[in-house]
Target: Phosphate-specific transport system accessory protein PhoU
Amino acid sequence: MSEQHIASAFDRDLEAVQAHIMKMGGLVEVAISNAARSLETRDEELAQQVRQGDKEIDALEDMINEETARVIALRAPTAGDLRLVLSVLKVSGNLERIGDYAKNIAKRTTTLVEAPHIGSSAATLRRMARDVETMLRDALDAYIQRDAELAQDVIRRDEDVDLMYNGLFRELLTFMAEDPRNITACMHLHFIAKNTERMGDHVTSIAEQVIYLVTGERPTESRPKADTTSQTV
Amino acid sequence: MSEQHIASAFDRDLEAVQAHIMKMGGLVEVAISNAARSLETRDEELAQQVRQGDKEIDALEDMINEETARVIALRAPTAGDLRLVLSVLKVSGNLERIGDYAKNIAKRTTTLVEAPHIGSSAATLRRMARDVETMLRDALDAYIQRDAELAQDVIRRDEDVDLMYNGLFRELLTFMAEDPRNITACMHLHFIAKNTERMGDHVTSIAEQVIYLVTGERPTESRPKADTTSQTV
Model:
């Protein structure tokens, strides 16, 4: 078996695993979008669909992790190739967490179905979710194409999501203070907003992974962190 | 080089990596404990220490991940040995996340330093944190000793943490409704409680990893999930 032959067998294996990552990413994108839409339109059935769909995402993660282990055992990759294969585990882990957050949003949507709309929160949450979804698509494209520039752009855009989250955090506090009957609904919306903001962080992790793969260096500490709500007094 | 020699070199490498996991676990335990104590005693300096300490935890994770990649590249482990090495990445990932949650609690503690105590929330949070800390110690012991029974016990105990979280969630809602001036402080306490509950989930993930390593099977779906707050109306 020539060196060339081994190399291309590895490439084929890696491509197969990455195809599953893309499939998983597609499912997660749909979950984000449907979770936000079901909240905005109070669509309980769609929320239920998101909750059910998370099982498929989890199953894909398990499969990807097993495939990855098989590729390592079979091809014994080293250096850059090994780094590439191990990155699959990180990315699938991030995708699984994002799927979990979408599921949690859908759960709370089911709880909120009878609650009145609180200001424009659902629309803001929809906008945040749409941004995160687009960022995720670009992060995965950057991953497949090893495009550090696109990955850097994704990291920058996470700041907008954080800023929207800050605004919503303050708005929801106001609605709570104005009418105690809003408190429980607002609490759920707070957690939904936080979940969406956390999704953005996981997308950022994927983008950072791309930069590490391409440049061999971890992005510097200066990752923009515009979520300042933990300092709100 | 004999087969035996290779095997024991692998074991030595693995032990070295696991020693770093234990060190990382120790730092995370301290972070959990100090985050909760700084909140209860309004100790801003201790909170600052937790925030600073997270850098060391993150650096350890990076080091462990690099060591793991080196062991794989050097020893080309397969089957059970490979599963063992890959589990290190999962466990270090979980520890890093728990450390992050402790850091976030410490951030919010800094914000809450001037706020009045809300009911017995700080004491409840302290109790939750203590439970999570003990669970973490046991989960890591179970990991090193491949003790599936102890791991199963850890998973069971996470239910108590979830139950405490449920109670606190409702209590905080009441305090918010009683006096709107409590709202912002209660919001931070809500997130602190949720962070602690999530820490318990990550400890549970470590325990599940142990069961997978020992039995070769993923724990069944029936993991107790007593956090029902997303259904609170």
